[in-house]
Amino acid sequence: MENDVFKKPISGLELPQLVEYTVEGRVHPLYVKTELDKLVGRKGKAPLKRTKRRSQGYRYVLHPGVNSADALAVIHHKFDKL
Question: Which residues of 12-24 are buried (b: 16+ CB within 10 A; e: fewer)?
């Protein structure tokens, strides 16, 4: 979120590779999908939306009008509860 990864649509296959590069270790794609599912939903309640493309599977992007700072605030609030 802090690096504005979700300003443009990004596929679910690209995200684990990006996370692996950032943390310099192996990350199973299922763990990335599980965390993304917590951040996807209706505008105002979740910062990300998921779209389906025939050729690429799911793609994730910020809801229109939601900036990265607002998305981070929602994420911190949501994960503080867990």
Answer: beebbeebeeeee
> Could you tell me the sign of the dihedral formed by the alpha carbons of 22, 6, 56, 30, in that order?
positive
Is the full-model pTM beyond 0.85? no
DSSP the chain: -TT-GGGS-EETTHHHHHHHHHHTS---HHHHHHHHHHHBSSBTTBSEEEEEETTTEEEEEEPTT--HHHHHHHHHHHHHH-
Inter-residue contact 43 to 70 (CB < 8 Å): no
Cα–Cα distance for residue pair 44/21, rounded to 1 Å: 30
User: Phi/psi of residue 75, each to 5°?
Assistant: -65, -45
Per-residue pLDDT reduced to its tens digit, 62-74: 888 777 777 777 7
d(CA 64, CA 17) in angstroms, rounded, equals 25
